[in-house]
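Before a colleague's protein record goes any further, I have to sign it off. What it holds is a sequence and that sequence's fold in token form. My question to you is simply how this chain folds and whether the tokens agree. Thanks in advance; the entry in question is below:
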Amino acid sequence: MRAVELRAFGGPEGLVATELADPAPGPGEVVVDLVAAALNRREWWIRRGGQAKLPAVLGSDGAGVVSALGADVGGVAVGDEVVIYPGLAWGDDDEVPGPDFEILGVPSQGTYAERIAVRADLLFSKPPGWSWAETAALPVAGLTAWRALVRYAHATPGKTILVIGGGGGVATFAVQIAAAMGCRVVTTSSSPEKLDRLRELGAADGADYCDPAWPERIGPVDAVIDSVGGAAWPGALRALRPGGVLVCFGDTEGDVGEIVIADLFFRYLSMHGTTLGSPREFDAFLAHCAEASWRPVLDSVFPLAEAPAAHRRLDAPDRFGKIVLAIDESRL
């Protein structure tokens, strides 16, 4: 099968197109012929030197067609159109994953390949009416946004939700999902063009985060959805109303954050860290998607062999939304 391996840490040139043996399904597993995969910040982090044994096939997001069944597989048939839930061994507790939890793609084979063998219980039906590229963009970014909004921000009609750095993959999901839930959504970006596009996606207002007064400009808010990390925390906490919550799942602009402790307890603020979500939350998210009028924002689509170019696009300042790899271009 065609695949892309990470063979050297550093820049995108460490990603190399290659041929690998087709995977065989073990007991309880199926083989999925992947149609599309999506990029996430996790692969960027691994490529630049995150923990991985090389060579490695990256990729946590994928959607495709079941092509083979292993022994003891029920509820799945060859030909089923599916999206892969990327949380391995999450466990029974929806609040936190179990001790053996890992995310698909390193150390296991990821989705930058024509085929992948996965446990049958990781497969969910492709939402009706959704394209393959849209479906492949859902698992990591969409589920992370869903969990942040539903479990921790308690997104309900009338609440005001601030999405920091609104042009990113998870952030574009968060804007659209929160708006679909009836929330008033506000966002930040340094690009007027991105702020205009975010308003088209459902944001009621936006502010340039280079303006020192941006928190007062768009606050107070009930919750902050943050993928930026440390650099954004001082402004994000200022924007929160008393009793508000900051939900963080990224550190793209700083892996150390500073807070004024007295501000935290005198204003009754709370903070939650999260990433991905449980299989039950993924099922609920897909049920929402099946009825939703919104669709994932796709920045660009690259052929599988052009994964290095797709990774370069991850760092482009004008990127807006998700980047997708077309694996079976005849189906897209």
